[in-house]
């Protein structure tokens, strides 16, 4: 078990390193950040001075190494734009993105799993068709468009929900729906497919042959097995969602990490972008790791050999 | 035998796989709807110059944001005009080209990369598999939207750049699916038979394995096409995708967004066609998966 | 003509997510000889290494140790296509052994095309001939496997194996997926083909009745080792190894006057990753003696084969 | 034991709607089963054996339509029993063992959990009592260290052990009827003999009625009191095991018996008997004898409804146009 | 929200750092004017200079300015204001190493010295006529002890100034709350009326409007003209429009930096571009409001911005003729760069397409475009310049035509005139030289100046405010109705 965790962690670190190296070299290509730091009204000398002060004239690998060493100490440098430590900037923004991500995945799970189960219990029924429609439509719905429509309907026309900001839980309702809806179809389909497969399996027939009531069959025998792949998927989706919250955050003016990422890209704020890419990938890596552990717990076959 | 007319004898040799497939295709509503809509959009895109009523780039600053006919506009501009007075319908029609082009080419590029990696990993296993799996992990760990935005910001948002970025980013699902399909097929006895016959690896991959996983490939192609179309729209919406005046639907939503409260159709129309295109592709993909899924094959 | 010398095959397998890979000796120091025109039956429980052995013979797996000789020449050293011409397989599952995307003609003619035998006209002629031989009408050439029944597919698989006129055919449970009514057709066909073309078979099966019917010699395998080898008569009339005994007793003939036999075997099949010490069979053996759990038995020659059991070990020593 | 059969089936018909029409999977089968008796249903793959057993247990999917003139268990009309009522019977008075021991146990729960479930559901016993019973039964089916097995998961057991667990599970409530659907097909020959022996011993000991489904004539001969030979959804021949094996009446039964090599009887290397052709499709209207396409004795009348005939005794029946299954004398019957 | 005396305002852009020396955005200027004071104050209406933290000033010589400071002023943290603060602030910002973001606002100063507690001298590096303008604008006074302690980042998080509003909370980039400073000195800015100003960053204008509709915002600004028009039609809000000093122009590669054979090296091509664009239409259809068509390379109100220059009317035929004359009868293909106002840029490129100049439109980030222009130039790019609200031609024309890396004309004659104008102290000399330069720029069509920008301010009916032309929100001028 320990070996497994160590090996897994090693892999995770290797992945993180590769991601950071790729993103670092990508951003390095973006050319000289000095102009970006200097801002709109800077003169040529300003830019030159900044280039020297920040050390942008050194070779890439040297810069990467420096960055990496300090990143390991939790120091991601200072934002060119905000003049604040990137780490604290991101920590500050992350709470919103995390809240959004947790709400989003909860929304997705709370709608997708019951729908998927219901659809699998009664294939081709009305509810199955509804679920299928929701998932097909959900996959095709551009989230920026969906968000805009929600704002028009619920904020402008009906005035029920605040269109932007984070002041109250109500503010999170629409972003949660948009973000969650993005993850819902995949989860629902997997739940449905998993349930269908499990329901047609021999051990469900065994349970029925014992005279177990349907409720017990569905929720004790079937769901437990069908949910295992859903857990991994939810983790993966959560990772994707955090990365994909850029659009949602920009529509609903949530000052989370996603929005920060978008703005930082526009502002050429490299340390921030760099750190954000790493943070988002770490989330993915950590979530998938946790999902593996949770799966091992749910599925005795994966527990100690 | 004298009993050739016996009904029990009739389907001892059943229909060919091709016939079965055709039958299933024509029995699948979603696939048909998706296919027809997609075909229509493809035709529209191909023949855009003949269909579009106006030059999609011709601006008329004096006729800005005229409403579509159903909101009191004129037939001169059936779907109205945009913020620079360009014909909205024509821009939508030309936009189909952009979306389809991006979808198809990006899916092609990523399909090539992903399939090569996935099949290699699945077929050779061992170290090749370990490397490919690692690369897939790395790729999955990179936040697509963020990386795509960053790259487009760096290299500028031309159509080529967007296509390349998406093509180089979206190969993960191909690799994953092709890897597992190959793994599955590799264990079949006909592959062992082919090896025992003395077939080379290339021949086994190309003529024994590929034909049996190509259906999965097609399904992933459609999914990734839809994915690429949506991502391009999202990038364009965020202002880091295809550049104006190229009529991209995402860009149109983004441009119309400013006036959304007063002229919601500016957003609704391009958003809807985008939705319809992606929906059609997805329906087609789902349908293809249904009709070619192994459990439906026999 | 086909000889295995001390062949072993070790896989490394992972059991759970958390455990590290462990070695599994699927085939453990096996030596076998098959003479020309012979049918060697190979029997044993599921997982004892029969298929692995077959794969080694087909060149699909490389043995970790030992040599495989064909006509005295080492197998790895011969060229691949040469080997393919001489040894061909028939697999167990007629559903997975034919590529569902290929027509029957493509499947059967594949060996000819791979080895560039003849032009397309002569290839077609060969396919027609072989179809006739295996008892399929020529019109199936343009159909697909999914249009055929299991028995018909198995005939196609046989046709593919025979089209290159190989000398040795490795049949890995060729009938176990088929219904009895079809099984007898295939068995008859295999017997006819052997007579007609003078083929040599390695016939793997866990159905002893079938093995008895078809084979000249029988090898009994247990946990990767050949525990007894004898002529059919020798084995079926006076088996030596307790495991062979048990196998023979478990054959259920359709005789309503007999009950279900007691094989005296223990309940548990051992874990091949951690095989029992000494004689691998001792935990289940009704005749186990103290030394069985400690010392691995020696191979002892018998009048028409050999056996690996302490019973005979000691008989031998005490006799000596 | 008593005269009233515990299970009585008359004209059981199962239809499955499929893509191109209706699959008449089981057509009008009749049989009776007395307490303590073993009935073997034998037939080729796809002949409808499993469906028949599921129909008795009331475990068919909603898609499949079940019709019968009579389907009664100990006087209870199963055709009229609600799902609720069936649940009360299943596991308690009738239970089932399935073919695949590998997949018939839920991988997510321990053996103990699954063993005790039925008992806890049906009888007012405490958990400890249930566990004690489970241990008792595990020992009875020959599993050593039964106590510790309870906390193991299915994947930790070998196929033979799992099938033993399945048997123990079926016996938890001491049912009156046990249906075993090919319980040994997936197992090795040696294990198969062990499991069969176990089943037969337990059945005798507990006095249960048993339906054993198999395609192995060897198994049938050794185990059955009564045999029902099934072909393409019909019972072509039923009767006491000895009668059926010693003087098979239906051409199909005879054909089957000729197909298998019997050590000591069949000459080594000799030509085996065969049944040419393949099982027909049962989609659409099916009339007449389903075996006529493969039968050497088929005549035009085989397409008409086939009468049920008696052979030698009143409880040995077969369906054939030929009064004696045709040319019985000219055919050489092994056994 | 009148009832709670809280004015809710939206910013569109995230403000990087409240410290006014470390941001370069409009939002920063707004906060700077509210939180800090300069030594001098320019009345936005009369353009008259008044004393603010200084009560009087006097040029000792071309390089030395002596100022008398106001007494009795205290910073928000209680620190009294005196000469030490001025000296510390000036010396800090003038030091290049300290990395003030907008160097040109401060790099004309060399140092400051204390004469007595309320008298300071500022030493210049070179004669700088716009010194008073800068002192009344971007150069604000910081508390020396506090700033020495916390530095720019601390100042950004907890700003302390002498201004009419003190900062109660800063959530960097997102949310700023200002409160009326009760102890504000008797400044020409006037005393603050509104008790609390609550500023949130809401990037999306629709969201801003939605909040305006439901009352959670009282004031939004920089509202796009189409929306402002609609909002005005609704009749529920006050919509005010003011012009700004920002102008939009095309800069053409007259010097051939992107290649000797660049078509724009030919003056006929440049003039053709000028004729090709319907600037009237741009102003009336897109910019609207108080925007105006301009023809000079500066904003008309700026000192020295002579309006008497060649103007090119919209004439497609003439443009085509000029192109043909220059050897491009069928037009040519060129890259077209822009960094903001995508719609304007798109419209302009469309005009160029109409005369045969086929544009390859490229929208880049500001910094990327700037870097490109500095390195290799661009054939055509749509640029804007706001002169940092400095009412002097040196703030724009001299920035771009003095052979610097952003000078696409590279006209030494023009550069010479501008040099003279920039360093002369005599206003007449300055005017004359600026005029010469501007005339030549227009005649050679180095730039194609197009329009000035305007800003729309939309506020609820409860708010009374008259915006000024320098695009600065002045909270002291806002009142509840
Ligand atoms: N590729 C492989 N990797 C790891 N282990 C393997 C592999 N192939 C076979 N084994 C293991 O080797 C042992 C022998 O397998 P093999 O397939 O030869 O048995 P078999 O006798 O043919 O069984 P069956 O009767 O079920 O076909 C088994 O324990 C199996 O799990
Ligand atoms: N749910 C179902 N849907 C459609 N067809 C079915 C279904 N269940 C069974 N069948 C078909 O009904 C026929 C009888 O099936 P059944 O499972 O009873 O056969 P069997 O005799 O048990 O065969 P085997 O020996 O392979 O288990 C088969 O042709 C099968 O394909
Ligand atoms: Mg095998
Ligand atoms: Mg069955």
From TrEMBL, chain A:
Q: Which UniProt keywords apply?
A: Cell membrane, Membrane, Transmembrane, Transmembrane helix, Transport
GO CC annotation: what is one? plasma membrane
Which regions span the lipid bilayer? 94-118, 130-156, 168-187, 226-255, 275-298
Q: Which Gene3D superfamilies match?
A: MetI-like
Localization in the cell = Cell membrane
Q: Which GO terms describe its biological process?
A: transmembrane transport
Per the record, membrane topology reads: Multi-pass membrane protein
Q: Which PROSITE patterns match?
A: ABC_TM1
- The residue ranges of the ABC transmembrane type-1 domain are 94-291
Similarity field:
Belongs to the binding-protein-dependent transport system permease family.
The protein's matches in PANTHER family, at most eight in alphabetical order, are given as: DIPEPTIDE TRANSPORT SYSTEM PERMEASE PROTEIN DPPB-RELATED
Return the protein name.
ABC transporter permease
TrEMBL record, chain B:
Nucleotide-binding keyword on record:
no
Where is the protein found, in the record's own terms? Answer: Cell membrane
Task: Please cite one Gene Ontology biological process associated with this protein.
Answer: transmembrane transport
Origin superkingdom? Bacteria
- Give a single Pfam family match: BPD_transp_1
**Gene Ontology cellular-component annotations:** plasma membrane
Keyword terms, alphabetized: Cell membrane, Membrane, Transmembrane, Transmembrane helix, Transport
Could you tell me the membrane topology recorded for this protein? Answer: Multi-pass membrane protein
Q: Does the keyword GTP-binding apply?
A: no
Q: Which PANTHER family match?
A: OLIGOPEPTIDE TRANSPORT SYSTEM PERMEASE PROTEIN APPC, PEPTIDE ABC TRANSPORTER PERMEASE PROTEIN
Q: Record's family?
A: Belongs to the binding-protein-dependent transport system permease family.
Q: What is this protein called?
A: ABC transporter permease
TrEMBL record, chain C:
Q: Which GO terms describe its cellular component?
A: plasma membrane
Q: Which Pfam families does the UniProt entry name for this protein? A: ABC_tran, oligo_HPY
Sample GO molecular function, one term: ATP binding
Origin superkingdom: Bacteria
Q: Which positions fall inside the ABC transporter domain?
A: 2-248
> Which topology term describes how it sits in the membrane?
Peripheral membrane protein
Q: Which PROSITE patterns match?
A: ABC_TRANSPORTER_1 (PS00211), ABC_TRANSPORTER_2 (PS50893)
Localization per Swiss-Prot or TrEMBL: Cell inner membrane
Indicate what this protein is called per its UniProt record.
Answer: ABC transporter ATP-binding protein
UniProtKB/TrEMBL annotation, chain D:
GO BP term (any one): transmembrane transport
Supply one GO molecular-function term: ATP binding
User: Quick check: keyword NAD in the entry?
Assistant: no
| Keywords on record | ATP-binding, Cell membrane, Membrane, Nucleotide-binding, Transport
Q: Which residues form the ABC transporter domain?
A: 7-257
Q: State a GO cellular component annotated for this protein.
A: plasma membrane
Where in the cell?
Answer: Cell inner membrane
Q: Does the keyword Metal-binding apply?
A: no
Matching Gene3D superfamilies: P-loop containing nucleotide triphosphate hydrolases (3.40.50.300)
Q: What is its main location?
A: membrane
Membrane protein topology class: Peripheral membrane protein
Family, per entry: Belongs to the ABC transporter superfamily.
Under which name does UniProt file this protein? Peptide ABC transporter substrate-binding protein
Q: Say which species the protein is native to.
A: Phaeobacter gallaeciensis
